[in-house]
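Hi R.,

Here's the chain you asked about this morning:
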Amino acid sequence: MKIKPRYPETIVYESEAVWDGETGGTATVTDNRTIVFDTPKTYGGRGEGVCPDEMFVSAIVGCLINTFLDFKRKTMLELIALKLNGAATVKLDSEGYNIIGIKIEGEIVVDSDDLDYVDRAIEMMKKYCHLTRSISDCIPIEYDIVVKGEETED
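And the predicted structure, written out as tokens:
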């Protein structure tokens, strides 16, 4: 018997990017939400929008957080705070630039009673974030996530 999945089996994400006539542009995504992007000043741009590399790193930490929150919703885990910082190291070689590694640092604060459960949620986050799963064979990803417990009032 096939079990009906909770989420769609396939989904397509789309973005349309339009040049701004100078050194960047605007990307339009679902529901007409827009992202202004630009070339960093370091590379001759105006730096007036988000650099695509920053969007890439933001997408990764955002996906990790969303994945963690999905597992949190499925449990009784009392989450107090969650913050992740991502950094992608880009290096120039003889053929151009390459991302040579990604480091994810952060802090997760939970109710002290939940310290035994948060490590499992972190492992599930790492395992099921589809963006990190998709790139992990070609870009090394390092994690340094600190977990803290706080007493909460019931």
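The beta strands are 16-19, 24-29, 33-38, 79-93, 96-111, 141-150.

Let me know if you need anything else.
M.
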